[in-house]
Design brief:
single chain; alpha/beta; five-stranded parallel sheet; four-stranded antiparallel sheet
């Protein structure tokens, strides 16, 4: 028992030590208005508006510039979710996010975008909600840092404090809309203060504190000023206290979220607040601001951000509220005058809802006040793979092994469903996918990729959502019938069987296309694992190096019209044309192009020599592939891979097969189960090929 108490005391002590008292006191700072004025003059950023603060928050995490197909794109590290350890990282939307941040910058500078509703538009599962969730979480964390500090104020009420009792000090009531303390300065007198602030501000924007106090604070302001005989300085000193403000969605401070409900349950007071009937008796009238709860989503999101989930599903009456909130930065609470607000209004919607908005002539004013930012699906394979690696990585999946290429093939199918057929007759959809993914193909350049993007208007706004793929990978992982390792064929079977019940695939033509693309991915997977097994068989780097040296000696003699000395006979022989062609044919070098290819290799070797570097076949992808395929052809008969599919394998062959399997496990990420499966499958492919050769 005593030991248990000691253990509990130790744990509680660790928790107590983990609480940073200095940080707590800093976040709960209170002071006079004069103290706050000193803070503002030292660091005018504390008085930024909501757009400026959100933009600075994103930039505070840093940026990096990447070049994609000759286009410079800024990548904002914030959207990699550094706060959540990458749990909500957004992949492949660099261009869309760059446009979004550009709109925020324009709003921060006061160029007009601050009077618009920012509308994230895209198909289901395109990370719209994730982006908003990141922004809300980022604002919360930023408000707790010195760079993101912001403040509000409290009024001395003269009533007992919350604690009650004889020792309770006079009560203080916080501004219900968490307004900027500088709004306490009369508008006519703000000019000199703002000029001083902006002279000290190192930013592309100006800080401008505009607008009036909320109805509740106007009442307290009037009462306090009356008590002080009109002496504003005395009122500020005696009746106002400034405190640090920490944004929190859970505490409904500075971050609001509104979700549509059915028409019978929708009420505009959810946005602008409602009467507090219990306090009417205390203050005598339902038009007294002190008897009103300024706790609508617009009210509590002041100084921060308000999210409208599926904004276009809102009732028309709600959309009218959005018009004034965006354009005029004001809302109309029941029985009160227009009330100024300072917040980012962010909505998201999908394509069908947006098309309905466009066709509704009555919503022209709303369309005019929105900035639409498209959030399409990924079209770059590597980015799509990152999504599934994050969700189904080694840390999250421990019960089963995921065979190599499983996530890649599922991602490839998902991306293919989103691409439009290329207009170039000699370019396949799979080649287009590879070009988008940064792979250069013969006859195509980075300019080609830009042309493909420009001609495919609306691409990636339709197709298969990552959620569907995630669900099917999950099904394969939890299947009781499957082995301890899942492979691409198992996942592709799940993807295909689920098409019948997919709620977003509404036509037979769509299902047919999805199945055809799955067949295409299966063929691509067969080629991938054939090459992988071939590389495992020909993984003897010394043998590849010897073959490369032999090839280079021969093409050197060929290009320089020389003869080679035979190391066995000592005689001078002609270059071995048969050897050279057997290698070049492996990468489809025609006879008419063999001279160009050989000169290309020799020029490359010569350029390296001038730089003092040694030639390595691994630096030339095409030559490496040709050498490995040649070595595979020379060795496959000795290994007799096709014998795996037979019932009897001799000991010598089995030892060689085990070596190949070991290479797959060590170098390519296979386990013993999936390595055996891949060897069996590739062996069956070769067996079918041998059978066809015999028939012919």
């Amino acid at each position: 028992m005593a030991r248990s108490r000691e253990k509990v005391a130790e744990l509680l002590s660790a928790v107590r030590q983990d609480r940073d008292l200095e940080c707590y006191q800093e976040l709960h700072w209170t002071g006079t208005f004069h103290d706050y004025a000193e803070i503002v003059l030292r660091d005018p950023r504390v008085a930024r508006n909501a757009f400026q603060r959100l933009h600075d928050m994103i930039l505070s995490h840093g940026t990096e510039e990447v070049v994609k197909h000759k286009e410079r794109v800024v990548r904002y590290r914030f959207f990699s979710d550094p706060l959540g350890g990458g749990r909500d990282a957004v992949y492949g939307l660099e261009r869309s996010l760059q446009r979004f941040v550009s709109v925020l910058k324009a709003a921060a500078c006061g160029y007009g975008a601050e009077r618009r509703i920012l509308l994230l538009h895209g198909p289901v599962g395109s990370a719209k909600s994730t982006i908003v969730r990141l922004l809300k979480r980022g604002l919360e964390a930023y408000s707790r840092t010195p760079a993101g500090a912001l403040y509000t104020f409290q009024w001395r009420t003269g009533r007992p404090g919350a604690a009650g009792g004889p020792e309770a000090e006079e009560g203080w009531e916080t501004c219900p809309m968490h307004e900027e303390p500088l709004r306490l300065v009369p508008a006519a007198a703000r000019g000199p203060l703002l000029d001083s602030m902006n002279r000290a501000l190192d930013a592309p924007y100006r800080v401008d504190v505009s607008g009036d106090l909320c109805p509740s604070c106007r009442t307290w302001y009037r009462m306090a000023l009356e008590r002080c005989g009109g002496d504003w300085g005395r009122m500020i000193e005696q009746d106002v206290r400034v405190r640090r403000l920490v944004l929190s969605e859970k505490d409904r401070v500075g971050i609001g979220t509104f979700q549509p409900k059915d028409e019978k349950n929708q009420d505009s007071t959810e946005l602008t607040g409602d009467i507090n009937y219990r306090r009417i008796a205390e203050f005598g009238s339902d038009s007294d601001p002190r008897a009103f709860n300024f706790d609508g989503e617009f009210n509590i999101a002041n100084r921060g951000l308000v999210e409208f989930i599926e904004v276009l599903k809102l009732d028309v009456a709600f959309l009218y509220d959005l018009l004034g909130a965006s354009q005029e930065h004001s809302i109309k609470p029941k029985k009160f005058a227009q009330t100024d607000i300072d917040e980012v209004i962010l909505g998201h919607t999908n394509e069908p809802e947006y098309r309905r908005l466009q066709s509704n002539e009555l919503m022209e004013a709303f369309r005019d006040r929105t900035v639409k930012i498209d959030m399409p699906y990924n079209v770059e394979l590597d980015d799509e793979v990152k999504i599934y690696r994050r969700d189904f990585g080694q840390e999250s999946v421990r019960s089963k092994h995921i065979a190599p290429h499983t996530r890649e093939m599922a991602a490839m199918w998902a991306v293919l469903t989103r691409l439009q057929e290329p207009k170039k007759a000699n370019l396949s959809l799979l080649q287009k996918l590879k070009l988008y993914n940064g792979r250069m193909l013969p006859g195509y350049t980075e300019d080609t990729v830009r042309e493909l993007r420009e001609e495919a208007v609306g691409e990636a706004m339709t197709g298969i959502s990552p959620r569907y793929v995630q669900d099917k990978i999950s099904n394969a992982l939890v299947s009781e019938e499957g082995p301890a390792c899942i492979n691409p064929f198992m996942v592709m079977n799940e993807l295909e069987s689920g098409l019948v019940h997919h709620s977003l695939i509404t036509s037979d033509d769509m299902r047919k296309r999805c199945r055809e693309l799955l067949a295409l991915v299966k063929r691509e997977y067969e080629d991938v694992i054939k090459n992988e097994v071939q590389r495992a068989i020909s993984a003897d780097e010394e043998a590849v190096g010897r073959l490369c040296a032999n090839y280079v000696d021969n093409i050197k003699a060929y290009t320089q019209n020389e003869k080679l000395k035979n190391r066995y006979t000592g005689q001078l022989d002609e270059p071995d044309e048969r050897l050279m062609r057997s290698i070049e044919q492996k990468i489809d070098i025609p006879d008419s192009r063999k001279d160009d290819f050989r000169r290309e290799i020799m020029n490359y070797i010569g350029a390296l020599a001038v730089e003092g570097r040694t030639f390595d076949y691994r630096t030339n992808e095409r030559l490496q592939k040709a050498l490995e395929l040649k070595l595979f052809e020379d060795q496959k008969d000795s290994i007799k891979l096709t014998s795996i599919v037979s019932a009897v394998v001799d000991r010598e062959t089995q030892e060689k097969i085990d070596v190949v399997k070991g290479r797959l496990v060590k170098n390519h990420g296979y386990c013993d189960v999936c390595a055996t499966d891949v060897l069996n499958f590739v062996a069956s492919i070769f067996a079918r090929g041998d059978a066809r050769d015999r028939d012919e």
